[in-house]
């Protein structure tokens, strides 16, 4: 807020609602020679509800905002349990070779395997794919259930993913890998 060209006057759920808690350099999405950014605002109020949002900021070379596009969390998930959603984001290179980097974001939604015994667990990583105009092209979801083959887990405690980091291409397959901080107490 208050950056020249960023003329958005939205409502944050609590204080600044986490605006800027996640920031990813996307490279030059609009081809003007200046890198553009995605900024998360997990408690942004859109349509009179606290849904959260991502702001794709298209920048001028002087640091002012050329224009911006808003992507609502509801464009990604309809879950009401999105605590700490997108407090951590990381760029993970251009997976679909369209010239725009993809972004991994955390979620602490509760996911179930829908079988007996139920091995529900909180936590997952959304991979977001963007169009050149900043709109969401598509997304994919990897839950912690997909990383484990274990017996039933205790989800009554405070669990989830709180931090993501780009680890580079650890397995030399041409795709950046992501380190996940899974908090469980």
Structural commentary:
The protein is mainly β and 185 residues long. The chain is 0% helix and 44% strand. It contains no helices and 13 strands. A four-stranded antiparallel β-sheet has the order 2-3-6-7, with no helix packed on it. A hairpin with an 8-residue loop joins β2 (23-27) and β3 (36-41). The protein starts with 10 loop residues before the first strand and ends with a strand.
Could you give a short description of this structure?
With 185 residues, the chain is mainly beta. The chain has no helices and 13 strands. A hairpin with an 8-residue loop joins strand 2 and strand 3 (36-41).
SSE layout and pairing:
Layout: E1 11-12, E2 23-27, E3 36-41, E4 44-46, E5 49-50, E6 53-59, E7 65-72, E8 89-91, E9 103-111, E10 121-130, E11 136-143, E12 159-168, E13 177-184
Antiparallel strand pairs: 1-4, 2-3, 3-6, 4-5, 6-7, 8-9, 9-10, 10-11, 12-13
């Amino acid at each position: 807020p208050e950056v020249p060209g960023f003329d958005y006057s939205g409502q944050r759920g609590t204080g600044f609602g986490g605006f800027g808690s996640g920031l990813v350099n996307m490279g030059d999405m609009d081809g003007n020679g200046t890198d553009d950014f995605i900024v998360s605002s997990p408690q942004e109020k859109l349509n009179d509800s606290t849904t959260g949002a991502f702001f794709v900021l298209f920048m001028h070379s002087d640091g002012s905002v050329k224009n911006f596009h808003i992507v609502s969390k509801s464009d990604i998930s309809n879950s009401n349990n999105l605590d700490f959603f997108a407090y951590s984001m990381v760029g993970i290179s251009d997976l679909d070779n369209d010239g725009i980097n993809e972004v991994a974001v955390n979620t602490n939604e509760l996911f179930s395997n829908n079988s007996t015994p139920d091995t529900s667990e909180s936590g997952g990583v959304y991979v977001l794919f963007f169009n050149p105009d900043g709109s969401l092209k598509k997304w994919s979801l990897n839950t912690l259930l997909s990383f484990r083959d274990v017996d039933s887990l205790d989800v009554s405690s405070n669990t989830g993913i709180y931090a993501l980091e780009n680890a580079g291409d650890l397995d030399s397959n041409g795709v950046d890998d992501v380190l996940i901080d899974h908090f469980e107490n």
